[in-house]
Amino acid sequence: MNTPNKLTLIRVLMVPIFLFVLLLEMVFPDWATGTRAIAGLIFIAASVTDMIDGRMARKYNLVTNFGKFLDPLADKLLVAAALVGLTGLGMMHFGVWITVIILAREFLVTSLRLVANTGDGTVIAASPAGKLKTIFQMVAISVFLLQDAVGALLGVELQAFGVTLGDVLMWIAVVLTIWSGWQYLHTYKRYIDYRN
Q1: What is the pLDDT of residues 107-130, one digit of tens each?
Q2: At what angle do helices 95-120 and 165-187 cross, to 10 degrees?
Q3: Dihedral angle computed from the Cα positions of residues 164, 169, 174 and 175, in that order, rounded to the nearest 10 degrees
Q4: DSSP-derived 3-state class of residue 108
Q5: How far apart are CA 194 and CA 96, in angstroms?
Q6: What is the SS3 assignment for 23?
Q7: What is the pLDDT of residue 65?
Q8: Between residues 27 and 75, which one has the greater pLDDT?
Q9: Are the C-beta atoms of 81 and 15 separated by less than 8 Å?
Q10: How big is the chain by its Cα radius of gyration, in Å?
């Protein structure tokens, strides 16, 4: 197994650690600002491995079908865990709807990838729109997790009219999620033709 794929596996293993730390505030509510910040740092570290493994794989010609499959799956696991955690803690406006839309798109695209791969061996790599939505999702989640700690350090509340920067970034991510999902469906619609 090459180094980029190992980094992807590390990202997968970081998901339960991240979720455990994030949800500690359900047991210790007074620790919320701290546990969110620590979870945010873990999330950022996991997100950075996503950038590193992709660049390394392309630069050193280490791109594999396993990596093309596992890398987007690792992203989905990380983002799904974060969305479920944020929604469960009531940190996002319209959290349930955002989580449902994003997870529905991820299940749809993952299913499409599986059908394409088992059908004729086609491996559907992440599209530019898919990568952009992942970036916005990861940045928005990071902001949600760190905004209380940053606000406490600065002595200000980082929101206006009850809306935070995390909310705005996440709404952009939702639009990109829908757009990139439609692109995948349009491009690979031959794999979901009911006549086949």
Answers
A1: 888 788 777 766 666 666 667 888
A2: 30
A3: 120
A4: helix
A5: 31
A6: helix
A7: 78
A8: 27
A9: yes
A10: 18
Token pair listed for 115:
């059908």
Q: Report yes or no: 169 and 136 within 8 Å, Cβ to Cβ.
A: yes
Which of 80, 83, 72 lies closest to 50, judged by CA? 72
| Distances 144 to 95, 99, 102, 163, 183 between C-alpha atoms, Å | 12, 14, 17, 11, 28
Looking at residue 189, what DSSP letter applies? Answer: G
Residue 36 has pLDDT above 70, yes or no: yes
Label residue 28 exposed, middle or buried (CB < 10 Å: 0-12, 13-18, 19+): exposed
* Residue-averaged pLDDT of the chain: 87
What is the C-alpha to C-alpha distance for residues 88 and 160, in angstroms, rounded to an integer?
23
Alpha helices per DSSP H over 60-94? 65-88
Span 47-97, pLDDT tens digits: 999 889 888 888 888 888 788 778 878 888 999 999 999 999 999 989 999
Q: What is the model's pTM?
A: 0.86
What spatial distance separates the first Cα and last Cα of the chain, rounded to whole Å? 36
